[in-house]
Amino acid sequence: MTSEIYERLRRVDPDYYTFERVNDMVPLLDKVRRLKRERHAVLLAHNYQRAEIFEVADETGDSLGLALKAAEVKEAKVIVFCGVHFMAETAKIVNPTKTVLLPDPSAGCSLADSAPADAVRDRIEELKQAFPDLAVVTYVNTTADVKALSDICCTSGNAVSVVRSLPARNILFIPDRNLARHVANNVPDKNIIAWDGACYIHEQITPEAVLQVRSAIPGLKILAHPECRDDVLAIADATLSTSGMIDYARRSDATKFLAVTECGLSDLLSIEVPDKQFYRACKICPFMKSITLENVVESLEKLQFEITIPEETRRQAERAIHRMFEVTSRDAIPLPPNVPVE
Ligand code: 13P
Ligand code: SF4
Fold this sequence. Notes:
By secondary structure, this protein is an alpha/beta fold. It has three domains: 2-108 and 289-302, NadA-like (Rossmann fold, 3-Layer(aba) Sandwich), CATH 3.40.50; 111-199 and 323-328, Rossmann fold (3-Layer(aba) Sandwich), CATH 3.40.50; 205-282, 3-Layer(aba) Sandwich (Rossmann fold). The protein is built from 17 helices and twelve strands. The protein has helices spanning 2-10, 19-39, 51-54, 63-72, 85-94, 110-113, 117-130, 144-148, 159-164, 177-186, 200-203, 207-216, 230-233, 242-251, 263-272, 293-302, 311-327, and strands spanning 41-46, 59-61, 78-82, 99-101, 135-139, 152-154, 170-174, 191-194, 221-224, 238-239, 256-260, 277-280. The strands form three sheets. A four-stranded parallel sheet has the order 2-1-3-4, with helices on both faces. Strands 6-5-7-8 form a four-stranded parallel sheet, with helices on both faces. The longest helix has 21 residues, at 19-39. It is globular, with a radius of gyration of 20 Å. The model is unreliable at 333-342 (pLDDT under 50). Bound molecules: 1,3-dihydroxyacetonephosphate and iron/sulfur cluster. Residues 47, 62-63, 141, 155-156, 199, 225, 227, 241-242, 262 line the site of 1,3-dihydroxyacetonephosphate (13P).
């Protein structure tokens, strides 16, 4: 058992996942599994989580995949969300009778923080004066309060198809300006008004860092997350959500890839697609990495930290998420082509 886990984890980083370290993790992994049974809990883990969390996850995925999985949870009473606060909130919004736990309450998101609800409300009012047909499209990396102000939500995996589906020409896109530009390039008939937010992790990745790897590795395919800067997206072979990158790497004839996003995705790719090679030009999101086996155990033992949302806010946010679910389903999402930015 230990050696199987060790074989998987050492693919991620043999210097960090030594046999001794993995051996020390095994009692904690067993404890999480036992507590999950006792608490009737399921564990949903985002693709950026630490590799040892994947060992105890019932489902891994991107924001869209996990929102859909959370909505489908029936038998379990508890959802332990290994990700960041807005993702756990989304799980509670779509499945309100479950106890949803976030193992570290400080696991926030700089992008969600860049759109406070009061400022969003003021901006919507102001823009509606100028554009009576305005539709408000909100990336899921936002608080429940902001989702509640929106017409429809989207994720990195479906933003293009969500915007395309709307009759309105004028769209306020909240909060990521890079994803907004990617959408505008793919849906040129819409007037996309971008909120001026960004993820500070993705913004640190430069085209120079990407080109340095590309020049050293012939045949490399560059897969970039749409939260990256436009000059990074312009040199990517494809712009994809985190799960979109995994699908692409599995299906592609290429054997060498650079996943330009948070480093956890490269970790997961080395586990999920072991016959291909993955290089790195990534940054670590400290919010995602604040979830550990230790705080997952504590979360299950003490049933902490529970997500609560006022019912009126939850209902309005749920409407925006359900509209997104209606427009697209996980299986139906086409891989969007990368559109170079002028
Ligand atoms: P995905 O929905 O593509 O997994 O992205 C979530 C995220 O937080 C990216 O930084
Ligand atoms: Fe938020 Fe950026 Fe971390 Fe994703 S990588 S959770 S957008 S801070």
